[in-house]
Design goal:
Helix content is 20%, strand content 27%. It has 353 residues and is an alpha/beta fold.
Amino acid sequence: MRNGNVPQCMRLDDFDYFLPPELIAQYPADRRDASRMMVVERATATLKDAFFEDIGCYLRPGDVLVVNDTKVIPARILGHKAESGGQVEVFLVEREAGDDEVWKCLCRASKRPHAGSFLILGEQLRAEVLEETDGALLRLRFTCDGDFPAILEKVGHIPLPPYIRRADMPSDRERYQTVFARHAGAVAAPTAGLHFTEDVLGKLRALGVDVAPLTLHVGLGTFLPVRSDDIREHRMHGELFYIPEVTAQKVRLARSEGRRVVAVGTTVVRALETSALEQGVVTGGGGVSRLFITPGFRFQTVDALLTNFHLPKSTLLMLVAAFAGRELILEAYRRACAERYRFYSYGDCMLIA
């Protein structure tokens, strides 16, 4: 039941909207940069329909465009139980620090595997169930004939989100990955970055936009549903991030000179704002972000945001609402539905300036 004492903009239902199911993109656009882009002007509360390939018209010389260069791993593995032969699906969630072959995983099977049991995940890969942890997760140790990341590339599947209701295809290995992906570790793509091509990036650099990377390995926590009616009770799952010192310097200099920091995706926002919150300013180095951004949050670093359209009642929608205002964002989503924008990972995008 709803707690009547929960203030406005802190209730889960305040972040709900109706989305016609047919607007959920099942495939990427023919070209990465062919997506539509809604431009949201916060100062004037206006909305404009545009195309992503024209993003240079909305950026300025001197802007620092911060991208997430994490690389999606083929985190979904199919196999069977060694004892019974029953089918099993393993989804890698988080690697254990200091051990590349021990992971926290989701496991889907007719009967949950027990500690001490083994899973056969192809000819070259096995896993031992070590223990249950964090509720739905299992801790698994993988053994293989060779290098685990290399074997995973062979047997693993691209972890498409559940709202993409089809099996992964060979083309997803390219299209569910940004062109600037460098550091393997994400179990989902930083989808705002999927629209960029090398040609678009080159044109932006020629315009005078400085493109700077950081790494945040997108984890399961980004997508876990908020179950409490009072969103303040939700706790984010930690996600590893690393900000190169050169990127931190560019961000600090831009802020001091009144130039804009433009985040490509909510993951970039969380990494930058976590660093600024913990250190006072954005600094180089790594950490873990558990930052849950909701309306009322004071942004210290990000001036503009490129983002895709997000699920109802999600932490991502709450972050965007905190950045642009809940009413304006919900109005933008209503317009996107009416104008038949494509939603979610393989869908269209929004530039909030």
